[in-house]
Amino acid sequence: MKKCSEQSLTDLGTRVRRARLAKGYSQDDFAERCGLHRTYIGSIERGERNFTVLNLIKIAKALDTSVGDLFGDKTSSDQE
Amino acid sequence: MKKCSEQSLTDLGTRVRRARLAKGYSQDDFAERCGLHRTYIGSIERGERNFTVLNLIKIAKALDTSVGDLFGDKTSSDQE
């Protein structure tokens, strides 16, 4: 059974990956848009990295989404 | 002029502080609820710390709010 924190990172990584693929970005392309290294993006998507708030903001911006969406928060867009 | 990243941390810290005060928690009380040190909470509220995603989740949980709310995302609760 995964620890709660590990599950949180895994869920977050899965949402980042899903959003990246929905945008049609490769990991290389996406890493460049974020200003981060491709291997770093890979470890985030696998839920292996407890990354920082500033990198979270970079990732949300590069995906043109909100941080709340990356955490699966119910937002107004879910109401439409 | 603050760098964009510094401003992001300052804005986030201000929202954490506002939410903590709205709950009526002292920094000591809140730190204990988060499982973090009081001085760590203080540095977050002052926007001095680029803290991690797992600590962000702990803080949102202790405030009984969503991560999106801490980032000022427009959520369904803003619609009511």
Task: Please provide a written account of the structure.
- Two copies of one chain form a homodimer.
- Chain A has 80 residues and is mainly α.
- Chain A has a single domain (4-74), classed as lambda repressor-like DNA-binding domains (434 Repressor (Amino-terminal Domain), Orthogonal Bundle).
- Chain A is 62% helix and 0% strand.
- The first copy, chain A, is built from five helices and no strands.
- Chain A has helices at 4-23, 27-34, 38-45, 53-62, 67-70.
- The longest helix of chain A has 20 residues, at 4-23.
- Chain A binds chain B through residues 5, 8-9, 12, 50-54, 56-57, 66-69, 71, 73-76, 78-79, and chain B through 5, 8-9, 12, 50-54, 56-57, 66-69, 71, 73-76, 78-79.
- Chains A, B: GO terms for molecular function: DNA binding; DNA-binding transcription factor activity.
- Chains A, B: Pfam families: HTH_3.
- Chains A, B: It comes from Tamilnaduibacter salinus.
In short:
Chain A is mainly alpha-helical. The first copy, chain A, has five helices and no strands.
CATH evolutionary superfamily of chain A: lambda repressor-like DNA-binding domains
How large a portion of the residues of chain A is in β-strands, by DSSP E? under 5%
CATH fold category name of chain A: 434 Repressor (Amino-terminal Domain)
What is the oligomer described by this structure? Answer: homodimer
**CATH class membership of chain A:** Mainly Alpha
Cα-based radius of gyration of chain A, to the nearest Å: 12 Å
For the record, the CATH architecture of chain A stands as: Orthogonal Bundle
Low-confidence stretches of chain A: 75-80
